[in-house]
Amino acid sequence: MRTPYGFEPGCASRAFVRACVAMAIAAMPAASANAGGNFTLSSTDFSDGGKVGPRQIFNDAGCNGPNQSPGLTWRNAPTGTRSFAITIFDRDAPGRGWWHWAVANLPAQVTSLPENASASGALRKLGAIEARNDFNVDGYGGPCPPPGNPHRYVVTVYALRIDALPLAQGRPAALFDREISGSALASAQLTVTYGR
After folding, report:
1. Would you say which domain of life the source belongs to (predicted)?
2. pLDDT tens digits, residue range 53-98?
3. Which of 57, 70, 120, 182 has a C-alpha 20 to 30 A away from that of 21?
4. Number of folded domains in the chain?
């Protein structure tokens, strides 16, 4: 039970207030502590709330795009970040949604990816690993929803508290997501749409 001021009962006396405040601050998630403001994600190819560009569209299943992963940049990662991970998820796909991309083990000093990092080999050079997406292909698989209403694609970068997730290249994206979520300090997102 907490007192009206949020302290535990043992912290209610003046002698313990300072110690309790210090403990509460130490227990706060690391995501609240960063050097330059909020953890943010931006893209040279996507704008939050905008539409997916033609270069990022999938190249199969009735779609004819170049299937290039988007260029991404993130800033103000929280203190304690030791690596990054990225996912792209279609929240409007039937059933459980659709995983388009999951990348993990990006070194902490990396704060951007160029367009087409998935297919170009840039991720391998960084030591990163990619999941098998729901098209059953390792790496990036761009949007290609069935004809009808546009779908929303959530692009998320995660700051992780560990250097590397215990995963291997080509494991299912849902497994990547579970491991990423368990090690995340903070995340930043943007959402884009695409329909045909």
Report:
1. Bacteria
2. 999 999 998 999 999 999 999 999 999 999 999 999 999 999 999 9
3. 182
4. 2
